[in-house]
Write a structure and sequence with these properties.
This protein has about 170 residues and is α/β, with parallel strands linked by helices. It has two domains: about 100 residues, no CATH class; about 60 residues. Helix content is about 50%, strand content about 15%. The protein is built from seven helices and five strands. Strands 3-2-1-5-4 form a five-stranded mixed beta sheet. Helix 3 links the parallel strand 2 and strand 3. Helix 1 crosses helix 3, helix 4 packs antiparallel against helix 5 and helix 4 crosses helix 6. The longest helix has 17 residues. It starts with a helix and ends with a helix.
């Protein structure tokens, strides 16, 4: 499992390797890892879901770091790209090194992504509750409004609406 300090140390190593190659990189971190980096109370994560450039160079360097650190080769991966709304999110810089910039999206953006996924048997529920408390979101209507700010209604399943309704009914 990766905690905030470990993730930041891995980014530092990636920064050093990019600098040694005279390259610049950028990473946008999403999902549980973003929450881990933003809020210290978030439990560690098994991987870092991200978008990154230059993609192939970073993918190779991540695999090298994984081997050196005895981590899975996909500790940093871009599997999240199918869930990213088209608009660029407002974001917070988490790491600004010599060759690497790492950012996480605005918490409302993360809330919308987590709510859209709302997977059972994952940390999604606890992550969504954490985001609701941090944004803050007080009502179901506010939650749906945030969701609609990032995803068109046609992209949101009825399951997501039911999930949010149940969540806010329990919080009432």
């Amino acid at each position: 499992m990766l905690n905030k300090a470990h993730i930041l140390e891995l980014f530092k190593k990636l920064d050093q390797r990019l600098e040694a190659k005279c390259l610049k990189g950028e990473i946008g971190v999403f999902g549980g890892a973003a929450l881990c980096l933003l809020y210290n109370e978030r439990i560690p994560t098994k991987d870092v879901d991200a978008l990154f450039e230059p993609t192939e160079v970073i993918r190779k360097l991540v695999a090298d770091i994984a081997e050196d650190e005895n981590l899975p080769p996909d500790w940093l991966n871009d599997a999240v790209k199918g869930f990213i709304p088209e608009q660029n999110p407002e974001h917070n810089t988490i790491y600004d090194g010599k060759a690497l910039l790492v950012w996480v999206p605005d918490p409302k953006y993360l809330f919308a992504m987590k709510a859209l996924a709302s997977r059972a048997n994952t940390t999604d529920l606890s992550d969504i509750k954490l985001l609701i408390s941090k944004i803050p979101i007080a009502t179901l209507d506010e939650a749906v409004e945030v969701l609609h700010n990032y995803y068109p209604k046609g992209q949101i399943s009825q399951k997501t609406y039911y999930f949010l309704e149940e969540l806010f009914d329990k919080n009432s």
